């Protein structure tokens, strides 16, 4: 080989390597998100550091000219949701149709409280959609019943390490992964600084513990005659466990050992002294002090929000989206209402969810996942797998998993935190730091098929039994523990 | 004598006072009932012309500081996605309700006539069997009917709703109309037959015109039932373009928030056709409900 030919070969090699590298998605070259460093500063430091080409990435999963048909259900965003989020959803479906012009997509948005029940009914009639995006609580139930086909991030062109380990746990049943997380979030504690001030509390300081919440709630109610804490105890509404479980875990209780590092879900803790202490705190606020809305037994967060915005509730557990919703509402006001709305906005404060008596802080690790159904449960008996994967790939991509969670959640794909939209989001959504800071405290619901029944029915039932006086605290906790035992042993 | 005259003179006025007292009690009771039924509607209307923020204020704004028709404009604007959906849902509800009403009348009229006029084996059994379905809560038929509709390929079609609403609405429709036919003297038909009319002609030319109020009441009943039905429409339909109004207006509820003015504007507009229909035809409806109560 001559020097000339060697030089040419080196040059050709260098050029082809450079070309190949440029063709590979930048995601393959970048360092993964390091969860051990997680902090608001770290999140800020990685935001806007990487670009992604969603269409190119998804083309590797399903060619862009693929011809097919897909039926898809998801928890939609509706009129009450922030305008920006509704625009992003609209953009997503328009972009999908543009990117995959030959896939006929039949998408159906359903409301949060109805999705699980409607899906269950559809499955009974073998009329389910080919793919579905379910809240985090739902995946294991349907995987355990055999409705879902295995689906892991690698099937959509991603790596399992691109997602929160807790989120992956929620889509895994008996060692097999049945879904891909699209978004994950933790909530925060929100309070009204003006009410705190008028009640003689430090307006800039959130209650440090749940015992403080009980104390603050009573003080606010006694001094101002309004509700202190926005307790929710409605049955069959996801809002209740999202607000009560952090309290239960902070006191050291739980349904099982889900708050431990390596949960086994074998031992029932609902009747433990710690769980009873958490229940007692709710009892004290509702029955003893009457410092929470009297409608708490039928309230969900959508009922608390107007009370908070009207200055009738001082504290609540909620998403960062409440702030965005308030901004939207203000935009649509006129006259004197604009100034009133601004006052509410100015008085909104976000803080970490309170800790328990021993400093333990916890929050529900929430979110949603995409699943693909088995053909025998689908209308028409066929599942267009490439079409379903194309949609899953796009939704779980760094770009869209961020955009579709822009106001109320966080990207399920950790690489979403590196996008330019995350940087924009950090500057435009106030208090986002607080909710992202809560993520490491997130505890996933038990990855059991019985979880929806436990969280949406048994736990709220326990609360209602204690708060209505139908049972004592001890009886309500023992009754709930017995129901969980029966349920997990196949009875009830 | 004077005292007696006084007593006699006073008697009518005291009786009048007594009668007036009852009348006033009745009037107060009726005003109370009117407020009880009308105030929620008034509140719905007032909320629908508030902004989202004003709708959440406490104490509430009894009349909005800044009334706005923005929610109505949004719902009626075909260029807007909310308006497109709302008008679509409205049309779907109208189609399903009208079809159900027409079919209900077509089936109930001859069926009720047959139960009223003919004697045939199993007549009583069949008549009460018609009512059997109404003895159970509608929700227990939800999953079986869903599976049945799935088997006959009607899921995600308006046909599934029309068929279901007919199943639920026909028993009462037949009962209403039978009461009407029972009160039409059979001698009128016999006279027509003597004059040369066939049974069908006697039915069409004599009985039908006399039972018009009953037919109208049956139609209103079927229409209102179909227009307001939620749970079957919610279960059988899962395509946005096919949803009916009761299911469609759910879009004003989100996971953590509710668009109250939008919801109230949509609810108000949804109630308009039923209220108008009822106001126009209420005398027939009331007459039909009471017609079978007294035998002539």
What does this structure look like?
The complex is a heterodimer of chains A (492) and B (296). Chain A has 492 residues and is α/β, with parallel strands linked by helices. Chain A folds into two domains: 31-185 and 365-443, D-Maltodextrin-Binding Protein, domain 2; 188-363 and 450-488, Periplasmic binding protein-like II (D-Maltodextrin-Binding Protein, domain 2, 3-Layer(aba) Sandwich). Chain A contains 20 helices and 13 strands. Chain A has helices spanning 3-23, 40-46, 54-59, 83-99, 115-124, 139-144, 165-170, 193-198, 210-224, 239-250, 273-288, 301-309, 321-331, 336-347, 385-395, 398-403, 420-428, 432-438, 451-467, 473-488, and strands spanning 68-75, 103-110, 131-135, 172-173, 176-177, 180-185, 188-192, 227-229, 313-318, 348-351, 363-364, 366-372, 442-443. In chain A, the strands form four sheets. A five-stranded mixed beta sheet of chain A has the order 2-1-3-12-6, covered by helices on one side. In chain A, strands 8-9-7-10 form a four-stranded mixed beta sheet. Chain A has a two-stranded antiparallel ribbon with strand order 4-5. In chain A, helix 4 links the parallel strand 1 and strand 2 (103-110). In chain A, helix 9 (210-224) packs parallel to helix 11. The N and C termini of chain A lie far apart (81 Å). With 296 residues, chain B is mainly alpha-helical. Chain B folds into two domains: 2-48; 71-291, MetI-like fold, CATH 1.10.3720.10. Chain B is built from 13 helices and no strands. Chain B has helices at 2-48, 52-55, 70-76, 81-117, 123-132, 142-151, 158-182, 186-194, 199-210, 212-228, 231-236, 245-248, 260-291. The relative contact order of chain B is 0.13. The mean pLDDT of chain B is 86.
């Amino acid at each position: 080989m001559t020097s000339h030919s060697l030089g040419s070969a080196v040059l050709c090699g260098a050029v082809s390597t450079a070309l190949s590298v440029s063709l590979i998605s930048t995601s393959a070259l970048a360092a993964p998100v390091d969860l051990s460093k997680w902090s608001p500063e770290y999140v800020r430091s990685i935001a806007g550091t990487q670009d992604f080409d969603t269409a190119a990435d998804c083309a590797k999963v399903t060619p862009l000219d693929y011809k097919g048909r897909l039926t898809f259900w998801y928890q939609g965003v509706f009129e009450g949701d922030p305008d920006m989020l509704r625009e992003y959803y609209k953009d997503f479906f328009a972009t999908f149709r543009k990117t995959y012009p030959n896939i006929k997509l039949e998408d159906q948005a359903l409301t949060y409280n109805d999705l699980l029940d409607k899906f269950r009914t559809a499955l009974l009639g073998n009329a389910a959609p080919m793919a579905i995006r379910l809240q985090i609580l739902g995946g294991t139930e349907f995987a355990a019943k055999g409705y879902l086909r295995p689906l892991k991030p690698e099937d959509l062109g991603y790596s399992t390490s691109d997602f929160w380990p807790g989120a992956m746990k929620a889509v895994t049943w008996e060692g097999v992964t049945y879904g891909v997380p699209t978004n994950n979030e933790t909530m925060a504690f929100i309070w009204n600084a003006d009410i705190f001030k008028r009640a003689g509390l430090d307006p800039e300081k959130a209650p440090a513990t749940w015992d403080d919440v009980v104390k603050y709630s009573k003080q606010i109610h006694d001094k101002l005659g309004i509700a202190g804490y926005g307790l929710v105890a409605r049955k069959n509404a996801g809002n209740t466990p999202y607000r009560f479980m952090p309290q239960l875990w902070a006191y050291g209780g739980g349904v099982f050992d889900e708050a431990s590092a390596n949960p086994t879900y074998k031992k029932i803790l609902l009747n433990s002294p710690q769980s009873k202490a958490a229940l007692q705190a709710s009892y004290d606020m509702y029955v003893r002090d009457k410092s929470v809305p009297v409608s708490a037994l039928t309230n969900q967060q959508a009922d608390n929000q107007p009370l908070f915005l009207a200055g009738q509730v001082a504290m609540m557990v909620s998403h960062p989206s409440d702030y965005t919703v308030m901004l939207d509402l203000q935009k649509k006001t006129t006259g004197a209402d604009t100034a009133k709305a601004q006052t509410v906005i100015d008085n909104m404060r976000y803080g970490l969810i309170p800790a328990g008596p021993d400093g333990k802080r916890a929050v529900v690790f929430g979110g949603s996942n995409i699943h693909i159904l088995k053909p025998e449960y689908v209308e028409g008996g066929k599942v267009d797998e490439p079409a379903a994967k194309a949609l899953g790939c796009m939704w779980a991509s760094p770009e869209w998993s961020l955009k579709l969670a822009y106001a109320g959640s966080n990207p399920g794909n950790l690489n979403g935190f590196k996008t330019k939209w995350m940087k924009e989001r950090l500057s435009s959504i106030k208090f986002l730091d607080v909710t992202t800071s809560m993520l490491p405290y997130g505890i996933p619901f038990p990855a059991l098929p019985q979880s929806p029944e436990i969280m949406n029915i048994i736990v709220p039932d326990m609360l209602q039994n204690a708060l209505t006086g139908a049972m004592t605290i001890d009886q309500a906790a023992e009754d709930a523990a017995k129901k969980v035992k029966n349920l997990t042993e196949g009875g009830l | 004598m004077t005292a007696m005259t006084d007593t006699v003179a006073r008697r009518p006025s005291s009786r009048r006072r007594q009668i007036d007292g009852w009348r006033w009690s009745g009037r107060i009771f009726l005003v109370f009932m009117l407020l009880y039924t009308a105030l929620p509607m008034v509140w719905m209307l007032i909320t629908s012309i508030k902004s989202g923020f004003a709708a959440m204020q406490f104490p509430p704004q009894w009349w909005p500081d800044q009334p706005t028709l923005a929610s109505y404009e949004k719902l009626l604007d075909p260029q807007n996605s909310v308006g497109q959906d709302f008008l679509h849902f409205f049309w779907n509800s109208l189609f399903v309700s009208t079809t159900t009403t027409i079919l209900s009348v077509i089936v109930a009229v001859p069926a009720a006539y047959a139960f009223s006029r003919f004697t045939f084996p199993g007549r009583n059994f069949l008549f009460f069997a018609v009512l059997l379905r109404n003895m159970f809560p509608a929700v227990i038929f939800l999953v079986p009917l869903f599976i049945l509709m799935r088997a006959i390929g009607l899921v995600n079609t308006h046909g599934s709703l029309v068929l279901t609403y007919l199943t639920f609405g026909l028993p009462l429709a037949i009962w209403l109309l039978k009461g009407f036919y029972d009160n039409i003297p059979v001698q009128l038909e016999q006279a027509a037959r003597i004059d040369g009319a066939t049974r069908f002609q006697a039915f069409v030319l004599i009985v039908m015109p006399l039972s018009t109020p009953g037919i109208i009441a049956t139609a209103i009943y079927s229409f209102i039932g179909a227009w307001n039905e939620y749970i079957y429409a919610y279960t059988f339909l899962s395509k946005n373009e096919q949803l009916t109004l009761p299911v469609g207006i759910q879009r004003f509820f989100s996971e953590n928030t509710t668009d109250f003015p939008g919801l109230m504007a949509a609810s108000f507009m949804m109630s308009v056709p039923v209220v108008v229909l009822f106001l126009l035809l209420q005398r027939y409806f009331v007459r039909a409900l009471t017609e079978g109560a007294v035998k002539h």
